[in-house]
């Protein structure tokens, strides 16, 4: 058994038996010497963030995105920094709340990380109890005619994957129907004025941009990430699946066409003069989504693997610094903006780790053992 496979087996065994939960200070697993280059860069990025990141305790969407990527790192490399379970436990596996907006998608983002802990490491019902209740309450609200909760494109990634996974896990057509209803509003809106532009194959960030030429990189990254995660869990014969697949493929075709020659995508996808230059969070989500499409056999490898190769090269050789810091991450915002070489954030690192997970599957000698 190779060092890498043995390390992966030990890490997963420890996780499944509760080895990630410890009262002593958590120590990162030793890095196997034979990790492939993709895995090494994933570990480097994850280690830098947990040692140098900011606001690490919050259960908000930024940290949720990081921890989803962090668990993808563990599953891909067998190396754990033992941070996600303590983070989730410290937050009591709860979602954020606000009585004035009880189903705000950003507040549901942590649920995806809790679901990953539950699914791959600790199948204990309390881990997803709060998420289950929130989704059940939202399903009931949707059934009463309230369908506009996902009224900005980021909301697709913050909430939709959890709806899909719980719908399948709990064999709940009602949950999947509510997800479809909410997605239909985001996509089509009222009288066809939704956030998805059929003409371009891209998403506007929210209603304030409909009809404009402003298509935000990370906003579209959230969308393709959400669709990728939903397609991973929905059965092939699910009647809702064809529309998600159609939009995913249309997005992929446009993204291929507008990728920069250096492998990045611009902050503003169709306007290179609006904050032109590298932007790594959108680039990471696009690389993740398109690589997933190839791995799943829904995108042609000959057509799209060069897109992934260029995207990963840009991320891992220019955005990722020698010390593991991921730069060129656009700050939090609702529109395209400047991305600086040293600009980093939890969601950018999480997206990079998700991209690495799918790129590793495409890389000979790098994919984790089944």
Describe the structure.
By secondary structure, the chain is mostly helical. The chain has one domain (3-362): Glycosyltransferase (Alpha/alpha barrel), CATH 1.50.10.10. It is 54% helix and 1% strand. Strands 1-2 form a two-stranded antiparallel sheet. Strand 1 and strand 2 (202-203) form a beta hairpin. Helix 9 packs antiparallel against helix 10 and helix 11 runs antiparallel to helix 12 (301-319). The radius of gyration is 19 Å and the shape is globular. It starts with a helix and ends in an 8-residue tail after the last helix. 50% of the residues are buried.
CATH arch. level architecture: Alpha/alpha barrel
Instruction: State the helical fraction.
Output: 40-55%
The CATH topology name reads Glycosyltransferase
Secondary-structure-based class equals mainly alpha
**Mind describing the biggest β-sheet?**
2 strands, antiparallel
List the helices and strands in order. HHHHHHHHEEHHHHH
Rg (C-alpha, Å):
19 Å
Number of beta strands = 2
Number of domains: 1
Strand content range: under 5%
What is the overall number of helices?
13
Strands ordered across the widest β-sheet: 1-2
What is the 3D form? Answer: globular
Pfam family, one: Glyco_hydro_88
Signal peptide: 1-28
Organism: Amycolatopsis xylanica
GO molecular function: hydrolase activity
């Amino acid at each position: 058994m190779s060092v890498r496979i043995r390390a992966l087996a030990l890490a997963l065994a420890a996780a499944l038996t509760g080895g990630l939960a410890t009262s002593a200070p958590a120590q990162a697993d030793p890095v196997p010497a034979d990790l492939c280059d993709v895995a090494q860069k994933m570990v480097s990025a994850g280690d830098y963030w947990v040692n140098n990141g900011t606001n690490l305790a919050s259960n908000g969407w930024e940290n949720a995105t990081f921890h989803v990527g962090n668990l993808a790192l563990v599953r891909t490399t067998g190396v754990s920094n033992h941070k996600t379970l303590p983070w989730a436990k410290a937050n009591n596996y709860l979602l954020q709340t606000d009585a004035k907006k009880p189903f705000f998608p950003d507040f549901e983002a942590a649920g995806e990380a809790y679901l990953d802990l539950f699914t791959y490491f600790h199948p204990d019902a309390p881990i997803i109890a709060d998420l289950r209740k929130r989704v059940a309450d939202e399903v009931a609200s949707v059934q009463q005619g309230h369908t506009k909760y996902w009224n900005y494109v980021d909301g697709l990634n913050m909430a939709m994957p959890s709806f899909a996974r719980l719908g399948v896990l709990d064999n709940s057509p009602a949950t999947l129907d509510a997800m479809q209803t909410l997605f239909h509003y985001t996509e089509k809106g009222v009288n066809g004025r939704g956030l998805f532009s059929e003409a371009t194959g891209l998403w506007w960030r929210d209603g304030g941009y409909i009809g404009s030429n402003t298509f935000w990189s990370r906003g579209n990254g959230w969308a393709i990430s959400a669709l990728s995660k939903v397609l991973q869990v929905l059965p092939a014969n699910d009647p809702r699946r064809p529309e998600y697949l159609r939009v995913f493929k249309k997005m992929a075709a446009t993204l291929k066409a507008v990728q920069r020659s250096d492998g990045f995508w611009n902050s503003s996808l169709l306007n290179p003069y609006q904050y032109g230059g590298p932007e790594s969070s959108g680039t990471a989500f696009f690389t993740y989504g398109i690589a997933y499409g190839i791995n799943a056999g829904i995108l042609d490898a000959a057509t799209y693997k060069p897109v992934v190769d260029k995207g990963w090269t840009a991320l891992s050789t220019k955005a990722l610094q020698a010390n593991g810091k991921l730069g060129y991450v656009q700050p939090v915002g609702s529109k395209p903006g400047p991305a600086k070489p040293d600009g980093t954030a939890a969601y950018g690192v999480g997206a990079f780790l998700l991209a690495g997970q799918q790129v590793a599957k495409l890389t000979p000698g790098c994919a984790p053992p089944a």
